[in-house]
Amino acid sequence: MISLYVWILLFKEAFGSISIKVEPLVVKIDKSDIDIRCMVDGTTLTSILSIQLIRSNTTVVTVTKNRVAWEDAALENKTGVTVNASITNVMSSYLHLEILKTVVRYPDSFGSYQCSLLALDSLGGLVNYHSLIVNITGLPETTIDTRDFTTAFSTEQFVQEGTFKSNISGGTFISNVTDGPSDHNISKILQTYRAVMTPLKSFFRVSLYLLSSVKYVCISLQRIGDSLDKIVFKIQF
User: Fold this and answer.
1) Rounded to an integer, what distance in angstroms lies between the CA atom of residue 105 and that of residue 221?
2) What total number of domains does the chain contain?
3) 43, 44, 78: which is closest to 61 by C-alpha?
4) Owning domain of residue 214
């Protein structure tokens, strides 16, 4: 659970304030309750006239000395939504809204929440205080139930000496290979490959040997020629 406690000194009053507490700030549909509390510290106040809970600049509910007035018709008298409030004591006045997870709705229950206080100060002046704005966010959960698959899909791809079949039925993926080449046929292919490649390997080896031999003979003849040139040169001189 994530909680946010903020106390704000508002207007010109050093101690007259209202705060907001929200749990949680990130809501999971069908898994999270929403709990919002507006709390008053009226040290310099003489009387509380009303407390309002506002969502996205629209009043949700107002509490006065005489009644609880709902402005959000979707929440009024709805099972799973409760409001508790008291403004008789300036030092401990509050408004508490709870929305159970069974009635939390996207995006209606989400938005920016703020508490507002209307009161009389120690001089008898009318004051209006506001808390910080707190955002409640969330996303609806998206699930895929395999039972929702009502159509079976089938694809076939033909390959040599066999058929590959792939089926999706009732949310289940099935993959089978039928009538494919047997182990005996695979052995025949390997034998044919070896029968062809073995003579080729031998041919290439012999060719490389002959080339090496020719190269050696050429080098030897070149050396013999160089030696004869030296002998002729000495005889001339």
Assistant:
1) 99
2) 2
3) 78
4) 198-237
Q: What's the pLDDT tens digit per position in 27-75?
A: 988 899 999 999 998 888 999 999 999 999 999 999 999 899 999 998 9
pLDDT, tens only, 165-183: 444 444 444 444 444 455 5
Q: Does one domain contain both 113 and 202? A: no
- The owner of tokens 């290979």 is 177
- The answer to whether the pTM exceeds 0.70 is no
pLDDT for res 222: 76
> 10 Å Cβ neighbour count for 178?
8
In a domain, 203, yes or no: yes
Which CATH number does the domain housing residue 69 bear?
A: 2.60.40.10
DSSP state of 29: T
Residue at token pair 């050429």: 218
Q: Residue 149, Cβ neighbours under 10 Å: how many?
A: 14
DSSP string over 188-229 = HHHHHHHHHHHHHHHHHHHHHHHHHHHHHHHHHHHHHHHHHH
Cα gap 117→94, rounded to integer Å: 10
The per-residue DSSP string of 122-177 comes to TTS-EEEEE---EEEEEE------GGG--S-EEEEEEETTEEEEEEEETTEEEEEE
Q: Tell me the one-letter amino acid at 230.
A: K
Q: Which residues in 209-235 are b (16+ Cβ under 10 Å) and which e?
A: eeeeeeeeeeeeeeeeeeeeeeeeeee
